[in-house]
Amino acid sequence: MSEKRQQVSRRQFLNYTLTGVGGFMAAGMLAPMVRFAIDPALQASTAGEFKAVEEVDNITEEPTRIDWEIEQVDAWYESTVTKTAWVYKDENGDIVALSPICKHLGCMVTWAGSDEYPDQFYCPCHDGRYYKDGENVPNTPPAEGLDFYEYKIEDGTLLLGPTKPRGEA
Amino acid sequence: MQWNKQDLGQYLTAEEYIDTLLIPLVPISLATGEDMVKGAGQMETTNIFVKEMEKQYKGRIFLLPIYSYLSSPDLEAEAVRLNKWVENACQRPFRHVFFFTFDHQWKKQERLLSGNLLWLPSIKADDIQSKETKAVVNDQVSQLTELIKSYW
């Protein structure tokens, strides 16, 4: 108890200092190398980007059109592209986000777009129709259902990403 | 459908469904700097309008590349040339032909054209990307597509 507190010797002091400085330099050299090594994994893919589009609380059971913009880069130029989705909550309260692109020839479908079918998606070009869940109505031109958007929910906000066809859902 | 290889591939497998031809008309003049700026602006806005229209009804509207011509108060000769275009295009199963333009000179020659003229007063927007302009354009486009739909 009464023993005098051990002083840091010259040897120890140099040891600590060199280890500290050396470690720092090694870290400085290694960090960029590690960064290069795992870089592809960190690269955000523009195609798979998720964008916040709407507060989840604002989404009702009625399909609503949501538009948002993404930066699209292709080999030649960068452009701002407007994306559109029809979003609603199903009976379980789960989010459903459908692509508006008709699977027939690529027109834009609208919810209740035809007065005759107020509870279906309707394509004005060739009278293609889809049920609320996006499945195509048999005997109308489209051969498959509307694509889904991949989605995430973060802090009560809905984020939409790339679309995926029904077969892979 | 647009005039590119990818869309044409799809078009050629389903051409009986695409029965509406859309031809954008844009005048060009290099006489004065003012004309040039005006013409270039019209080219940009025309492009935005027709591409948006095509996007709505991709499966039924075939969009030709912009037809540009020397700006002139007398477009009779151009009307004759355009009709040849239409004649050529109508070997395909097109049943409706629309011309889209901001050039008011066409309004006078409307009866000479073998198709429907969609003429709009040009939009003077300093910033076509601004939110307000976009809202105006989107509204105009949806009215135009409604009009086209009424012909089907």
Automatic annotation (TrEMBL), chain A:
Component of the menaquinol:cytochrome c reductase complex. The Rieske protein is a high potential 2Fe-2S protein. The keyword Iron applies. Belongs to the Rieske iron-sulfur protein family. It comes from Sediminibacillus albus. The keyword Methyltransferase does not apply. The chain crosses the membrane at residues 12-34. GO terms for molecular function: 2 iron, 2 sulfur cluster binding; metal ion binding; monooxygenase activity; oxidoreductase activity, acting on paired donors, with incorporation or reduction of molecular oxygen. This is Menaquinol:cytochrome c reductase iron-sulfur subunit. InterPro entries: Rieske_2Fe-2S (IPR017941), Rieske_2Fe-2S_sf (IPR036922), Rieske_Fe-S_prot (IPR014349), TAT_signal (IPR006311). CDD domains: Rieske (cd03467). The main subunits of the menaquinol:cytochrome c complex are a Rieske-type iron-sulfur protein (QcrA), a cytochrome b (QcrB) and a cytochrome c (QcrC). Gene3D superfamilies: Rieske [2Fe-2S] iron-sulphur domain (2.102.10.10), Single helix bin (1.20.5.700).
Automatic annotation (TrEMBL), chain B:
Pfam families: DUF2487. This is DUF2487 domain-containing protein.
